[in-house]
Amino acid sequence: MSNNQQITVFHDLVGRTIVGVLKAKTNGNLEVENPVILNVVPGEGGKMTVQLFPLFFREFLADKSEKVSFTFNEGNYTETNISALDYRLVAQYNQMFSTEASLATAEDSGSKPESDTVVNLFEE
Length: 124
Fold this sequence. Notes:
The protein is an alpha+beta fold. It has one domain (6-109): SH3 type barrels. Helix content is 19%, strand content 36%. The protein is built from one helix and six strands. It has one helix spanning 87-109; strands spanning 6-12, 17-26, 29-42, 48-54, 69-72, 77-79. Strands 1, 2, 3, 4, 5 and 6 form a six-stranded antiparallel sheet that branches. β2 (17-26) and β3 form a beta hairpin. The longest helix is centred in the C-terminal third of the chain and has 23 residues, at 87-109.
């Protein structure tokens, strides 16, 4: 993610916390690129674990490197006043999409990155 992209955080109509790159806000509608659901669950030792799930899995796309945008209609989301996120959360978000782009490139070339473990959601 480059410095000119703004991460936005909001709640959708069903109460999920959504994080993504704000592309446009027009007529009260939010256009968000690569939105993810921020999920916090209890972990080991009473600690909380943060999980990010894409709103739409790239495995369904013909072009795995394509960016996905969603438009959230006015009245179907609740904005926050969050202006900055912890660097670790931003890094995790950025890694999700940079890794997927490199995996798509590796799949096209027939090789796999050695340091990344790939979990396939669907059998091919």
